[in-house]
Amino acid sequence: xxxxxxxxxxxxxxxxxxxxxxxxxxxxxxxxxxxxxxxxxxxxxxxxxxxxxxxxxxxxxxxxxxxxxxxxxxxxxxxxxxxxxxxxxxxxxxxxxxxxxxxxxxxxxxxxxxxxxxxxxxxxxxxxxxxxxxxxxxxxxxxxxxxxxxxxxxxxxxxxxxxxxxxxxxxxxxxxxxxxxxxxxxxxxxxxxxxxxxxxxxxxxxxxxxxxxxxxxxxxxxxxxxxxxxxxxxxxxxxx
Length: 240
Prior knowledge:
The chain has a 6-stranded antiparallel beta sheet, covered by helices on one side. By secondary structure, it is an alpha+beta fold. Helices cover 40% and strands 18% of the residues. The chain has 10 helices and 8 strands. The chain folds into 2 domains: 2-131; 136-233, Homeodomain-like (Arc Repressor Mutant, subunit A, Orthogonal Bundle). The longest helix is centred in the middle third of the chain and has 18 residues, at 114-131. α7 (178-193) crosses α8 (200-207).
């Protein structure tokens, strides 16, 4: 039982962060999903396939007793092109795959054996990648925004495109604008630091915040909790 992640096949690593699974526990439980800049293609035993994200705040989730959940986590900026649609209409939503890509949903019925469901998730994602690969410029933009020294206002110049064009393409690919992804990725750096030695003031600076007060405002906005409370409840990045 429990949650685990593993690397995707080599052919998908430009578009996919990881594959993941959550095995059912004897009793239902509540979880808090935190923003990560990604979109997940998910199959749940007894439900079928759906899409998660992109999130801009904490999203409560119920883990049903005895249910296996499998997922493919798409890289920031890969989701829009792979799904063949702008992602901003999916912001902060969980949407059945049949409402977006019905032909793919038909291949992922709710009663599949989990091993077969994961095989199909990977194959479907591979087909999406072949049909509509990610926009290299938007992938580059997302990588730049994961650098704590990147300034958002410099992004269009570094990518050699106009501000309006960048925002339009970026929002379609990611689901929101560059400033929001910059905030989300900085927040994820803070979450990763919770497993290391040090205090909140040090973590704030290392993650890219101005100071601990800045960190506090952002964790309340993105997680619904101040840093100390978040550190007590989330020792590693949350999952979907």
